[in-house]
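Researcher: Re-running this chain for the archive, since the previous output was lost when a drive failed. Same request as before.
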Amino acid sequence: MDSSFSKKVIVDLPPLLRRLLLTAIDALLLPLAVWLSFWLRLAQPFHPSFQAASLWLLPAILLFGLPLYAFTGQYKGLTRYVGSHALYRLAGRNGVLVLLLAMTGVTLRLPMPPRSSWILLWLLLTGITGAVRFALRDLLLSLRSVGQKQMVRVAIYGAGEAGAQLAAALRLAGNHEIVTFLDDAPVLWRRTINGISIQPPQALIEIQDQLDQVLLAIPSMPPQIAPTHRC
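Model: Regenerated structure tokens:
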């Protein structure tokens, strides 16, 4: 199969298939987080406490977790637009999930993990599922960028909030390559925004051959485009 075709298939997956894929991934990650919480807390991968509690805890986390994720909108958001707010909501969902599991164990007098394992489980659930979603977001964005026939190479003049927002928008669009930021403030020089260096405006003379456009991101005015002329 042609690689470009396979990439297009991945990027253009129907919403239903994408939700099913995310559900399947969570079905693997939730039990993994339970196992890791016991291992890290008890320093043994298959401690007797895990063997006793896992008989109910592993099925229960799937029984509670997947419907909770589905009914609270976990799978409705667009993966390539996942951001910090999605992570906060995920942490809240996982907090509710851990409380449901703990209440079930106490109510039914089931074998329970150590108390500190519940906090560790919440951290692992949030960290693992959150990391996977950010990784999927970056994968989708990179596949979209690869599919573009020609990337417009740009420098952003202004490394403040407006410049960072413009860079984020261009990254989501997937048809621009940000070469560098330019800014008048010496305190920002040699620093980076998402791994992209910030340089003084004088650097434009040296890098103009690498650019197609210079985008102006100044808070007091809308972004402007200044084409560069190669020598």
